[in-house]
Amino acid sequence: MDHETIRRIDRLMGSALCFTLTAHRRAADARRDRPSLAAAPVRRVLFLKLIEQGATVLAAPALQLAVDRYGRDNVYFCVFPENRAILDLLDILPRENVIELRHGDLRTFALDATAALRRMRREGIDAVIDMEFLTRAPAVLAYLSGAGTRVGLHRFEEEGPYRGDLLTHRVQYNPYLHTSEAYLQLVQALEEDPAQTPLLKRAVRDAPLEPPRFVATDADRARVLALLEAEHGGPLPGPIVLLNANTGDLLPTRMWRTDRFVELGQRILAAHPNVTLALTGAPSERDGVEDVRRRIGGSRVLSMAGRTSLRDVLVLYTLSEVLVTNDSGPGHFASMTDVGTMCSRI
Questions:
Q1: Strand, helix or coil at 342?
Q2: Tens digits of per-residue pLDDT, 30-79?
Q3: Residue 295 half-sphere exposure, CB side, CA atoms within 13 Å?
Q4: C-beta of residue 44 within 8 angstroms of C-beta of residue 71
């Protein structure tokens, strides 16, 4: 399923599920002497962030805070398979603690979600952090996990999609906070009184928000440089400039038009006779990026889309002077290196 199909299913089925489960929660609370607010101490924490590898870079300080509090072996992460590479690269939590949900079709997703929920209960996950605000599936999974503590962003009186009332710790979205700080708030809310709404009623913990640094080895740099030279047909004539045009499935409001990338590439080549342009992209964008390469024209334009691992892409950043990218994952990945970055929007 592509992202648009996922969003459509989430909107149609997700709303109904959130409504039904909210009714279930309130009925269960009514049968108790008091609401089902979490009281047991937190021991094992699961983060839910199915999409957007770039957001995982921003969540690194929050992940590290959870590891510091509860131990590395007690922190888990649930993600789509194609978005786990950055988790493995960050190496903040054990690889075996990453739970994958495939989404090739609705049946596959349902089977994997069922298996994931069983594992959450088997592992004794008692706290889930829902890192989403615009989708409903994570809120549903958090509720069905059986975790007594469920933290996430709640819309209260703000605009936002209906996600029911499935959280125990409801955090107010603050547009004035950096995303890294917002994710830190979710971890901090684990230890707060859930009766206090909205959370968080104190200052964000003073914690380093710098992204983790990626260090390429000499072998890394030699390997990626060899890939570039093989594509070019010999040694590169000079500095490398990267363009990440995102020709695949990305929200239009986060994209610069492809023809603008083409024009920019042509102008760079004309103004800098020794610069090599390298075009990056995911495997699914290979054909689209190749079309951009042909439209820019010239022997100094290389298409690397689908020919590099995520680690190779980060190494490529360490070899390059500047990256021009849409508002997407590469901009966040680049923050882990010293490459100059320009982020474009419509």
A1: strand
A2: 877 555 554 578 999 999 998 888 889 999 999 999 999 999 999 999 99
A3: 16
A4: no
* DSSP structure class, residue 146: T
List Cβ neighbours of 210 (8 Å cut-off, separation of 6 or more). Answer: none
* Residue given tokens 């603050």 in the structure block: 174
Paired tokens of 8: 């459509």
Answer yes or no: are the C-beta atoms of 133 and 173 closer than 8 Å: yes
SS3 content of the chain, % helix, strand, coil (to 5): 45, 15, 40
Residues 6+ apart with CB under 8 A from 134: 160, 161
- For residues 233 and 92, what is the distance between their CA atoms, to the nearest angstrom? 39
Q: Is 271 left (phi over 0), alpha (psi -120 to 50) or beta?
A: alpha
Strands (DSSP E) along the chain, which ranges?
45-48, 75-79, 98-100, 127-130, 149-154, 169-172, 240-244, 276-280, 301-303, 322-326, 340-344
- CA count, 13 A, side-chain hemisphere, 229: 12
**How far apart, in whole angstroms, are the C-alpha atoms of residue 9 and residue 5?**
6
Task: Decide if 261 contacts 243 (C-beta within 8 A).
Answer: yes
Q: What is the mean pLDDT of the chain?
A: 88
Stated length of the chain: 346
Residues 219, 221, 225: CA angle, nearest 5 degrees = 120
Distances (CA, A) of 304 to 69, 125, 160, 229: 41, 40, 38, 11
Entry pTM: 0.87
| Top-confidence residue, 346 or 20 | 20
Tell the burial category of 290 from Cβ atoms under 10 Å away from its Cβ (0-12, 13-18, 19+): middle
Amino acid, res. 53: Q
- Dihedral of the alpha carbons of 142, 146, 147, 153, in degrees to the nearest 10: 20
Beta strands in 53-97 (DSSP E): 75-79
